[in-house]
Design brief:
The chain has 437 residues and is an all-alpha fold. It contains 21 helices and no strands.
């Protein structure tokens, strides 16, 4: 009965299902020149079959049970609950007219050449206040899609803007799970980790805002905002305020669903049965997301169980001889863990204690190691097409995650900028060797 807690010895072949997924989804899609040729659900079914087929663990029944335990862990179930409520809220808000009303409000406030950069900054602010990238995407992605449809801006670009901004706060917020885990495992204060982190992240966010400004400044927007229906804006404003106040994301979504329904009934946007049908349609629209989340959870658990992550850890830590080498190993360690788990919090829980051992041995400043852990976990989480963030954004926008990836400037530059910070020792105040006690 304790089989789920066991892990076999380090084994590179345990990573085969991940390679199969990347080949069957990314490589095939790129080769075909069409990201809809290979459905992501089919790619995950193929890789999941491979994961079960090559897994250790005895009889086929035992291997399938191990897969199911990974698919049904608490983090997976929580994500699915968020997907269900997010789908219901998004569809209700859209049918009631909240999205159009909020889009008109945004277009009335923001000049046309500031649309992309303005949404990016709003996403940064909300995510750092909320502490969750998924919650930010749920709140802003429908608005971004609405702006794109009415202005001619590429939908994938606007959704990429939201995802980029959401990862800014996921990495920096004091109430983010990743910040809490990173600082606790490294033994430093959140405020100290923030001081290191902000020196790297803020300049990159400013560069990204400028990039988005120039991209949207070239767009000729002929759309004239309609009269703002303030009553229909209330559900979105309430959701944003509740999220920023730190309220649980599930409760925020329930409040949003209730308010959207009440306003929709009051404004005759639908009757009670129309509302119920809208809720059902919204939940059903998340079906692909839910299937992918289950399959990814099971497949990635098989990789962990069969020693894939342990193999990566052993290889990354085998040849460390300096502080820079230690820092690069910490970055690589949490990046691979995140690639294999598709959950940055879980990746940090797994990599954190090992990073602490590496940091202590080579005298890496705990504030810096905590910052590196958090940054690289968010960097990977923000760009993998099977992570909750891109799946949620793609589902709400009804486009492929791959289409969004080309516009994720913030995660890409954050990863590259932090790698440069390691190589140059920036910021120097936190890169000096810490003497033994």
């Amino acid at each position: 009965m304790h089989q789920e807690k066991l892990t076999h010895h380090p084994n590179v072949w345990a990573l085969t299902p991940l390679a199969v997924f990347l080949i069957s989804y990314l490589v095939v899609s790129i080769a075909a020149g069409d990201f809809y040729k290979m459905p992501i659900t089919v790619a995950f079914v193929i890789s999941s079959i491979v994961a079960i087929a090559i897994s250790k663990g005895g009889k086929l029944t035992n291997r399938i049970e191990q897969f199911c335990r990974g698919a049904a862990n608490t983090n997976i179930i929580l994500m699915i609950l968020i997907f269900i409520l997010a789908g219901a809220f998004a569809q209700t808000a859209k049918t009631m007219g909240a999205v159009d009303a909020t889009v008109n409000l945004a277009l009335s406030i923001l000049p046309e050449n500031l649309l992309a950069s303005g949404i990016f900054l709003a996403s940064c602010f909300i995510s750092i206040s909320v502490g969750t990238s998924v919650g930010t995407i749920v709140a802003l992605a429908p608005v971004a899609v609405g702006i794109a449809s009415k202005t001619g801006i590429d939908t994938a670009l606007m959704v990429g803007v939201v995802v980029s901004g959401s990862m800014f706060g996921d990495n920096l917020s004091f109430i983010s799970d990743t910040t809490i885990v990173a600082t606790r495992t490294q033994g430093c204060k959140m405020s100290d980790k923030f001081k290191v982190n902000i020196r790297i992240a803020l300049p990159i966010a400013m560069i990204v805002a400028i990039i988005y400004f120039f991209m949207s400044s070239e767009i000729n927007n002929s759309y004239t905002p309609e009269k703002i229906e303030w009553l229909k804006v209330i559900p979105y404003l309430t959701v944003l305020i509740a999220a920023v106040s730190g309220m649980n994301v599930l409760l925020v979504l329930l409040i949003g669903i209730s308010l959207s329904g009440i306003v929709g009934l009051w404004s005759d946007s639908f009757d009670i049965w129309g509302w119920i049908a809208t809720l059902g349609n919204g939940i059903n629209s998340m079906g692909e997301l839910i299937i992918v989340t289950f399959l990814a959870g099971g497949m990635l658990e098989m990789i962990r169980y069969n020693g894939g992550i342990d193999w990566i850890i052993r290889k990354l830590t085998a040849h460390i001889h300096s502080i820079k080498g230690a820092e690069l190993s910490i970055a690589g360690l949490v990046s691979f863990a995140n690639l294999c788990t598709a959950n940055n919090t879980i990746a940090l829980i797994m990599a954190g204690p090992i990073a602490k051992d590496i940091g202590d041995k080579f005298h890496v400043d705990p504030r810096r190691s905590a910052s590196l852990l958090d940054i690289f976990s968010c960097f990977v989480q923000g760009i993998i097409p099977y992570g909750a963030q891109l799946l949620m954004a793609a589902g709400l926008a009804n486009i492929s995650p791959i289409e969004i990836m080309q516009y994720l400037y913030y995660p890409y530059l954050l990863g590259a900028g932090t790698l440069l910070a390691i190589l140059t020792g920036y910021p120097s105040k936190y890169s000096k060797k810490i003497p033994k006690a």
